[in-house]
Design the sequence.
């Protein structure tokens, strides 16, 4: 496929899916339930965290998480310390269970109470060298600093160890990209859209290789960098 043909093909796919009609069948529908910045951030982060598997299941379980927070994520996490582990013990999404859920709630509570919130945490990391990788690593280090069980650590990707960090990159895209088409939110001005990296998984990696956009055979951070560079 010639470059012009490839661009037209990708533009057509972008226009097809980057529209409000797609929201209701995608996990991004969960943060779209809210108007308050902090609620959107928290709902978006939790939805992105469990965004693997079938989309209907992801959406159903993400809605369960919102219900467990009484439908008010920010108020729930900041009005009192998150101490009721029993509230979350029955939650399960694939390998993400009640233990992980309880830790995530406590960590998010501390981040908003003591670290200025999710945007501040990611932007502090971004300011280190102006890359999404440093933003994710800094976020991960802080998020996992509240003594999690070892099993919980795997739910926060580590690009320093090669992870493609697909779900965190997707979350950053939701928060940063302009809301021109009313799909993404454009809430964060502290990280430029030009710094965002491609959310890469098995499916997007396979498509990218078929289109000649990715040569690396592993779906790791190096592949993310290669694919993102070729799409710019």
Sequence:
């Amino acid at each position: 496929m010639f470059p012009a043909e490839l661009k037209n093909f990708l533009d057509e796919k972008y226009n097809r899916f980057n529209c409000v009609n797609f929201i209701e069948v995608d996990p991004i529908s969960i943060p779209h339930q809210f108007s308050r910045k902090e609620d959107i951030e928290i709902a978006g982060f939790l939805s992105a965290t469990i965004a693997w598997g079938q989309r209907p299941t992801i959406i159903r379980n993400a809605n369960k998480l919102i219900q467990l927070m009484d439908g008010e994520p920010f108020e729930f996490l900041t009005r009192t310390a998150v101490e009721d582990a029993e509230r979350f013990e029955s939650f399960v999404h694939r390998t993400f269970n009640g233990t992980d859920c309880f830790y995530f709630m406590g960590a998010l509570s501390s981040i908003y109470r003591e670290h200025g919130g999710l945007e501040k945490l990611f932007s502090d990391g971004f300011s280190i060298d102006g890359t999404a990788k440093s933003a994710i690593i800094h976020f991960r280090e802080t998020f996992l600093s509240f003594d999690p069980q070892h099993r919980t650590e795997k739910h926060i990707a580590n690009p320093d160890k090669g992870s493609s960090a697909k779900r965190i990159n997707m979350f950053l895209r939701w928060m940063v990209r302009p809301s021109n088409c009313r799909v993404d939110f454009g809430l964060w001005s502290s990280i430029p859209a030009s710094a965002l990296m491609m959310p890469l998984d098995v499916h997007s990696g396979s498509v990218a290789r078929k289109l000649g956009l990715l040569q690396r055979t592993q779906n790791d951070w190096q592949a993310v960098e290669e694919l993102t560079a070729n799409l710019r």
The chain is about 55% helix and 0% strand. The longest helix spans residues 98-114.
